[in-house]
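From the pipeline queue, job 12 of 40. The input is one protein chain; the requested action is below.

Action: predict structure.
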Amino acid sequence: GAPFKIKTVENATDFVVYISAKGKFYINWGDGDEDVIERTDTNEQMYSHTYEIPGEYDIEMGGKATAYNNSNTVAAVSFRDNTNIKKISGSLGYIFSTLPNGGQPKFYYTFSGNTGLEGQIPPALFYGVNGTPAKNMFYATFSGATGLRGTIPAELFENIVGQPMEGIFYRTFENCTGLTEVPGNLFAGISGAPARDMFHSTFAGCTSIAEIPSGLFAGINGAPAQRMYNATFSGCTGLRGRIPEALFGVF
């Protein structure tokens, strides 16, 4: 089966995805049509599909990326502002994996503005992405996905290990108003000296999160960096109790 699956909302009429990675990919649109995409460059390109009959469709994606765009503001794959996504499952990271030479995909705005997206974030969503983080790697990845619910999976970033990079979790879960819990080991692999903007607005506007786990940033230590925790929990009006004493580690 396909490594990554999408269920559209009930009355979807069209679907848009942006890909910037080099490689061979396929998209089964769920209505009998399938596109095979052979990309020889890393320029961002929009791929769209129109459904003759509005409805709920099961889209499957597969393939393998072989090179990524070096820009810090281009995603390997993005469904930004796509309001026709209802559910996602499987691993997007299986298609857009860490390359043998260490090249990393960026999930810059990948699910940003997906207001129709419901349920929990799939635990294996970034399985296949491992090793040292990249700049802006998860910048605004789920920003504004207000239908996401429950706990952020503890294993979501588990294979991302090493030194923080600038903007790595900038606005990642911003305004995800339905998320209720942040696991204490969510960033367990990230360790070392702080980077600029690394947790800028990460959970800003997450009004349903009730508690900040004490060990959330346990691996971060060293000289402070600009805006490293700027607005990290800004607008988290559902927080209760005390802020953990050792939350921001040792500097």
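Job complete. The longest strand covers residues 45-55.
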